[in-house]
Amino acid sequence: MSLSEPLRGVVPPVCTPLDRQGDVDTASLSALVEHLIRGGVHGLFALGSTSEAAYLDDARRRIALETVVKAADGRVPVLAGVIEATTARVLDQARDAAELGARALVATAPFYTRTHPVEIARHFRRIRAEVPLPLFAYDIPVSVHSKLPAALVRELAEDGTLAGLKDSSGDDGALRRLLVDLDGRRPAGFAVLTGSELTVDAALLAGADGVVPGIGNVDPAGYVRLYEAARRGDWPAARAEQERLVRLFAMVDVGPEAAMGRSSSALGSFKAALWLLGVIDCPDTAFPQVPLGEPEFAAVAERLRAAGLEPVR
Fold first, then answer.
1. What is the pTM (predicted TM-score) of this model?
2. Are strands 104-107 and 78-81 parallel, antiparallel or unpaired?
3. Under CATH, which architecture does the 9-233 domain have?
4. Taking the domains of the chain in order of start, what are their residue ranges?
């Protein structure tokens, strides 16, 4: 079953709770899906960067996606990340995702190998041709080392290859230029989603259709309020909500730079927050990420309280 209408709104990239052995904690993951749906989200993105998909083997990826689809139970669409280095590997993941009930696929350009826009176009067209689900391009140059050119995105949107774009490039100027370029001639059903959770109000004002916010795992209702304020044109309310979320987002920097990578700090803070809020049972991140310590958990709890979210642990 694919998407029946263009994707809009708040589509969090779902964290993957793990147990102490590094296996998917399906009970906590189901509880997280309920937390997100109760928060009013419009879709769920499983197996993306925030899901720690790069750290999960194929069996754990299947368990995670199957759990999200089952817990969502058709209430919101589930998009599945099919992120691998080459087309053949992506297709294996895409076929699994279709079998498990995903409503759409999210793929990056090929990586590790050096690619040309012609090859990137062939990559997306092959995926779309062989697995008949709506396909979203995931623009994340920090991880794949190439940025999707606007002309290529437009071409693949116009020929029906792409159903949308998840822009996590961090280049808000390029996103704005793409939206201006598409204005008045955007293909029917093509959705543009920003992954830059700190500038959602600006992206929505510019014409983006929604947001894929990692910290939306922690406060989905806040992003829904922001989106709804933007839809009704209440930009002061949207700005106020965005600024509260910016302050909450500061939790991603609790981990000391000398001791851990920025992913360890950010993903660790999201899981710490979800544990402190009582949503998940274990805050561990996947190995070899460095775990947060007690001072970092205390800092996350402080950020939660400042944002009006009360820890239960």
1. 0.96
2. parallel
3. Alpha-Beta Barrel (3.20)
4. 9-233
Round to whole Å and give the CA distance between 234 and 222: 15
DSSP-assigned states of every residue in 86-119: SHHHHHHHHHHHHHHT-SEEEE----SS---HHH
Dist CA 38 CA 40 (whole Å) = 5
Contacts of 104 (CB under 8 A, 6+ apart): 2, 3, 7, 77, 79, 80, 133, 134, 135, 136, 163
In whole angstroms, how large is the CA radius of gyration of the chain?
18
Strand order in the sheet with 9-10: 9-10, 210-211, 191-194, 164-167, 135-139, 104-107, 78-81, 44-46
12 touches 45 (CB < 8 A)? yes
Contacts with 264 (C-beta within 8 Å, 6 or more apart), sequence order: 255, 285, 289, 290, 291, 292
| Measured distance CA(140)–CA(123) in Å, rounded | 16
pLDDT tens per residue, range 19-64: 999 999 999 999 999 999 999 999 999 999 999 999 999 999 999 9
Segment holding 48, helix H or strand E? none
For the chain, the residue count is: 313
Q: Do the strands 164-167 and 9-10 form a parallel or antiparallel pair, or are they unpaired?
A: unpaired
Question: What parts of the chain have a pLDDT lower than 50?
Answer: 1
Q: What are phi and psi of 294, to 5 degrees?
A: -60, -40
Token pair of 59 as six digits: 């069996």
Amino acid at 89: R
Q: Which tens digit of pLDDT belongs to each residue from 171-192?
A: 999 999 999 988 878 888 899 9
Q: Where are the alpha helices (DSSP H) in the chain?
A: 26-38, 58-72, 87-100, 117-130, 141-144, 150-158, 172-182, 200-206, 220-231, 235-249, 262-276, 294-306
State whether residue 45 is helix, strand or coil.
strand
CB contact set of 272 (below 8 Å; sequence gap of 6+): 251, 283, 292, 296, 297, 300
Question: Tokens standing for 306?
Answer: 């400042």
